Amino acid sequence: MLLNNLIPGIIEAGCDEAGRGCLAGPVFAAAVILPEDFRCELLNDSKQLTEKQRLELRPVIEQEAIAWAVGSYTHVEIDEVNILNASIYSMHRAVDQLTIRPQHLIIDGNRFKPYPDISHTTVIKGDGKYLSIAAASVLAKCYRDDYMVLLHEKYPQYGWLQNKGYPTKLHRQALVQYGITPFHRLSFKLLGTSIIAED
């Protein structure tokens, strides 16, 4: 069972990102502040949920959260600062937009750059341990998927409706056959043979 807060009694925001391992499109991140008494049995790490379950959870999170926000870094910005920094800065952008300022951040993973004047704790596999991080993982994934569905309408041959930009076999084959789009991350190994698991 996922926990509500790392530090009870303070305003705590969970942060997570989606799209780190993709070959195309932005990386998205979300920050979510949940009520201390929030309960939701379905909520879990977004990777453990089906797309249908994530879409069911999205309005629940958005309606019941004390505050939530989504930030992103474009494929161009990713190429400029690298994907790790882009993931972290996307979380910063999400926190920037919160209507309530948190007193502490809990971050999925083990790497983060301090956000000004707010303490933080990194939690490995935090999206499977804390509700606010799990909620952030769901929102980040949903908003990124929505973006990739729109891009799919322009570039259907890459299979983004299904793979959302991850390096599936179809996506790799399309890169060989059709070349890169204006939305591919040029700093990534686009024509390699390795397949990166979805993050």
Compute the average pLDDT: 93
Q: In the CATH hierarchy, what is the architecture of the domain at 12-149 at level 2?
A: 2-Layer Sandwich
CATH class of the domain at 12-149: Alpha Beta
Number of helices, counting only DSSP H or I runs of 4 residues or more: 6
Shape: globular
What portion of residues belong to β-strands? 15-25%
Helix content: 25-40%
Strands of the widest sheet, in order across it, are: 3-2-1-4-5
Secondary-structure-derived class:
alpha/beta
Query: Which segments are poorly predicted (pLDDT under 50) over 5 or more consecutive residues?
Result: 193-199
N-to-C SSE series?
EEHEHHEEHHH
Report the strand count: 5
CATH fold name of the domain at 12-149: Nucleotidyltransferase, domain 5
CA radius of gyration is 17 Å
What is the secondary structure topology, with strand pairs?
Layout lengths: L11 E7 L8 E7 L17 H14 L2 E7 L1 H7 L1 H14 L7 E5 L10 E5 L7 H24 L5 H4 L5 H10 L21
Parallel strand pairs: 1-4, 4-5
Antiparallel strand pairs: 1-2, 2-3
What's the short story on this structure?
This protein is of the alpha/beta class. The chain is built from six helices and five strands, in the order ββαβααββααα.
